[in-house]
Design goal:
With 195 residues, the protein is mainly α. It contains six helices and no strands.
Length: 195
C-alpha cells in the first residue's frame, strides 16, 4: 500500500470515528426519555463502530509493511542492476555472454517493478505508461553497446552519462515511496558547514 493510500485510509477512519462521536451526542440529546432506547442501542453497537475501522487500519498497516518489504528488495536489485550497467559501459569489447547477462539483469528489474506497480493512465483503449520508464531507457542505452559494435570511449561515456541521468530520474521518484527518516546524529561534511 502506497503512502498516499495509507494516508487516505487513516483520514477515512478518522472521519468515521468523528461521525460516530457526533451521532452519539445527537442520539443522547434527541433521546431524553428515561429508557433512552435509541442512545442505549447505539451504546451497545459502539464496539462494532470501533472495531471495524480499527480492523481496517490494521489491514492497511499490514499491507504497507508488505509493500515496503517488496520495495526494499526491488531497490536492492535495482541498485545492483544499475551498477552492473554502469560498469558494462566501461568494457571496450564486451563478450556476447556479458551483453546477454546485463540485458537479462535489466529485464528482470523491469519485470520486478511491473509486479509491484500498475501502469499509469490505463484506459480501455490505451495500455498506459510504465511507472518507471527510465529503466526501459537504460535497457535501450545498454543495447547500443552490443558485441562487435566499435564504440569510442567518448561514445561509451555518453551512454554512461545517459544511464546515470535515467537512474537519477528514477531514483528520485522511487525513493518517495519509502518512509525515510533524518538520522539522529548525522555526520556532516565540515567543509560544507564552514567549520
Amino acid at each position: 500500500m502506497t503512502k498516499s493510500k495509507l494516508r487516505q485510509s487513516f483520514y477515512t477512519v478518522g472521519v468515521i470515528y468523528f461521525v460516530a462521536l457526533i451521532c452519539g451526542i445527537v442520539f443522547r440529546v434527541l433521546d431524553p426519555s428515561r429508557e433512552a432506547l435509541l442512545y442505549n442501542t447505539y451504546k451497545d453497537l459502539i464496539p462494532f463502530v470501533i472495531i471495524m475501522p480499527a480492523t481496517w487500519l490494521g489491514y492497511c498497516l499490514q499491507q504497507r509493511i508488505s509493500y515496503m518489504q517488496q520495495l526494499r528488495i526491488i531497490w536492492s536489485n535495482l541498485v545492483a542492476t544499475i551498477q552492473s550497467a554502469h560498469q558494462y559501459t566501461f568494457l571496450e569489447d564486451p563478450s556476447p555472454e556479458q551483453y546477454a547477462e546485463i540485458l537479462k539483469q535489466i529485464s528482470i528489474s523491469i519485470d520486478e517493478i511491473r509486479g509491484v506497480f500498475d501502469n499509469l493512465y490505463v484506459t480501455a483503449d490505451d495500455v498506459g505508461l510504465y511507472p518507471f520508464e527510465p529503466l526501459k531507457d537504460v535497457w535501450q542505452e545498454i543495447a547500443k553497446i552490443a558485441p562487435g559494435n566499435t564504440l569510442s570511449k567518448e561514445d561509451r561515456k555518453v551512454i554512461r552519462q545517459a544511464v546515470f541521468r535515467k537512474w537519477q530520474e528514477m531514483r528520485i521518484e522511487f525513493l518517495k515511496e519509502f518512509d525515510r527518516h533524518v538520522p539522529a546524529s548525522p555526520i556532516l561534511d565540515k567543509r560544507k558547514t564552514g567549520e
